[in-house]
Amino acid sequence: MLQTEEMHYLQQHFRLTQKSSMDHLETVKALDLFEPKKCESYLNHLTKVLDFPSLQVAASQLSKRYAYMVVLPVLFSMSVWNKGLMMKADHCFIEPDWKADRWMPRLRLESGLTSNIEGEREVWRDRLIQELFAENITRVWHTLTLVTRVPLSTLWENTAIYIFWLYEEKIKDFDNHTRQRANADLQYLIHAASPRLFGEAQNPLKKFDSPKTYVIDEDSYIRIRQTCCLYYQTHILGTCCKSCPRKVKKNKAIPQI
């Protein structure tokens, strides 16, 4: 089991919650996202409430929230605490929440159960990755693509950007031993993990491990996206993400040496 302070950390940093929303019409079971008709109904609701221009935009923005709430707590717990947070879809509920005027849902996890390392850590890690991706994330992504025709590559890059952020930024201030273990986990996940752990024909994250480039307008090194997440279509001014390929011009980016 997670300690109280550990669960509090996940709630504070990765938008988990143990509270049910009072607005039951807005709450959706993660399992519903496996079913095309129920998934489409939820996307239609989001499109209306959030004034999205299309179901594709709704699907991409939902995938970003879902990846943040589902993927990051599992990988963080695995790499930092050596605890296997059980993120089974039948335990997950998306609860509505807002930060000012931004839609920032939370994930209610009915069980805070964890799996302990038994035997080799690598075998235990594979079980966690398969449960997280093949049995949850991948099934949601395929339903979103089926319902809206949003490119599957966009949904996987939406996932990858948060994974890189987690390991490169969120875990960088932990002790050296934890950082080494976390980096080994990242390299395995991106480059060596079997496609079967993702329920895909090939590792869907590997191709997004591109070098960072120095973007003059941002005055920082950024891993420029290969796909557009369609965020610019949610904003009246057409504002893009800072790593958007639509925004970053070749003459404004200098490859990192």
UniProtKB/TrEMBL annotation:
One function term, GO molecular function aspect: catalytic activity
Aerobactin siderophore biosynthesis IucA/IucC-like C-terminal domain sequence ranges: 60-181
Name by which UniProt lists this protein: Aerobactin siderophore biosynthesis IucA/IucC-like C-terminal domain-containing protein
Organism: Thermoflavimicrobium daqui
